[in-house]
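Q: Joint fold for the lines below.
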Amino acid sequence: MSTTALPAQIARVPGVAIALIALCIVFVLTSPGFATSPNIANVLTQSTILLLLALPMTLIIMTEGLDLSIGAVLTFASIILAITAVSTGSLALAFAAALAVGLCFGFLNGALIAVFDIPPFITTLGTLGIAQGLSLVVTDGQSVVGIPRSIETIYSGTAAGIPLPIILAALAYAVTHALLYHTRFGAYVFALGGNREALKVAGISVRGMLIRVYAFGGLMAGFAALLMTARLNSAHPTAGIGMEFDAIAAIAVGGTSFERGNGWLLGTLLGVITVGVLRNGLNLLAIPSSVQVACVGGLVIAALFIDGLRGEQ
Amino acid sequence: MTVSPLFELRGVCKDFPGVKALDNVSFEINAGEVHMLVGENGAGKSTLMKILCGAYRADEGTFFQNGQQVRIDNPADARRFGIAVIFQEFTLVPYLDIAQNIFLGREFSSRVPGLIDRRRIHAEAKRVLDLIGFHIDPRTPVHKLGVAQQQMVEIAKALSQDARILVMDEPTAALSDRETELLFAMIERLKKKGVAIIYISHRLSEVFALGDRITVLRDGRKIGSLLPAETTPDQLVTQMVGRPVDATYTRPSRPTPGEVVLEVKNLSGPSGFSDVNLTVCAGEIVGLCGLVGSGRTEVARAIFGADHVSTGEIRLDGKRISASAEDSVRRGMALIPENRKAQGLALARSIGDNIVLVGLRKLFPSGIFAPRRAIKAARAVIDKLRIATPSPRRLVATLSGGNQQKVVVGKWLNADAKFYIFDEPTRGIDVGAKAEIFRLLDGLVHNGAAILMISSEQIEIVHICDRAYVMRSGRIAGELKHHELTEANIVRLGIHQ
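A: Joint structure:
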């Protein structure tokens, strides 16, 4: 490798890494608070919820699908979690309820897409509306408060000096990685997007696999609801709005293609951190969140532009 | 002593609504044999193979394996008898590696519950690949492979499932000459290992080069089983089309060429051609031939305005045209591309929709779409070209390759073009359909159109063209007038001296 010319080596670095490095340089130069260890820990901790959504979404997009409902499902799961915790006082029961809500929505998405052949975009736009509507109906538009305070330790606690959310997210990443690259399920995810005929010929149920992929997405949204609720120590009916946008953006930045089952899980991790760095840096520069959304959009286009430019060479 | 064939189908019948696809067809295959299956598009070859592999169920017929009667009700049955099909559309997953593709759905389990043993998958894949003499790292992702290599992976996949009967559907359709040689070498190796191969082909040369036996189907019936040594290509074609080969197309007399429609002067372009001069007159079919890579397609695309031109000029009806495809179409130029699936058809739409697409402005001058008039216009084209379909409302994707090509060509019947470029209009279609395409070209020039036709088959150029230009290394090597137009002259001009 040492004989390869430097430009050729640079050409092999993915666009997401270049974007991440470029952003870090910009923020180091413009805001003094950026390169401090508390802030870096903060960026990573804040990125964990997004990662929990982006991991399964990567698999879903690899099947040439989409899940727009994931942010709304997170919100609704978070509300059910809070209500259960407040009324029963049991956090374990509350967590189980949140995971069940996520799983139900994921299963519903998968069933509608696989069995009734409704396009994923339409299906999950529908379930987004349902989950969002239910959140507002159940709470009457108000926050749910009064959860036992011990829930906060999930988000703010540490183990061996490492924030708990980072450990949980690392665990989720490891599990998803093993799932995608070391199980039959993962191989079939590649096939769902790459060549469904190959699955049929191999005697594997395309419908069954699709349902599992979306169910996994719902379950992870439920899991993300734990962190979200722990972070806020309450549940808000609008907490997860737009999170699907950040998740899809992070995946696109990370180099997963929307066609032919061409996905890259590590790219998604880098994409999530890139989006997190961008938002954090803009926060430090006191730029309003409405402008931040536009910047994330710009980041997606920039990263794909870099990849596209190099793809032509 | 008679030995039972490895597998045998007897008296197979299959009806589709409106079509008798197979009528009392019998077919047998022996171990270590290459059995060629030939016939025109729609003769029933694919249907027969789909019955063999369990994708369709026969209405009537019995199956025998080594003389024992068996049933094939579904693909799993066929797999159990060792029957595997290599379809033209591969069943490979682009972003999985070769090994995982070979063992898709049959992954080895690791000692850790739930996980797969990738190391063992790679080792087993390596063993199968070595067996067929395909030396490649099984960790290579499939999307990095060429068509020929992907085909090898398909073959390895079939053999890893203990296939003893391999059905190949036009395996050389997308291969280069070199790749074809490699495939043939592999087929020889498989034969020696006792694998039986059923090989569907439209190319007579390979039918004779590879086949141990040839079975001809026509209109759903078996016409005969022949030995290659006891027949000739002409006899075979006669059996396929049911009429002598010379009678498939006789070129009618043409009107005297009219005014020059297209004039190309000193055209050079970055895609690899220079100083090209040619003319095409009204009422004339002019051939553009030469070896693959001599610049034929590039010149055609440049004339149409699809590619850049560095110097030279193109005149249509004496008026200079700017090199843009939009301008070309507006002034009555049409390019019928070679790759029909990618460039010529809306596969998800009906046959009728595809046919009327080009002539929308002419058919509906008011701008309002009248479905009845569209169907009527489509029916006229379907009848004229004998496109095999019960209704123009059927999806184009349901047609066979030859009939799809007729749709690509046929849609231009409704257009107003005065100059047409046909790039390999007969690629991948059978003798009978070719004659119908030629009839269509003749109809166009009779109505005063001018045609430039690219073809790799010299015999076609000789049969149909009034004149021809032969290209060599990006330049026009010479022009052949009608009386000079012979296969020998085309080859002589086209080959490097």
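Q: Anything notable?
A: Chain B has a mean pLDDT of 83. Residues 7-242 of chain B form a domain with the Rossmann fold fold (CATH 3.40.50.300).
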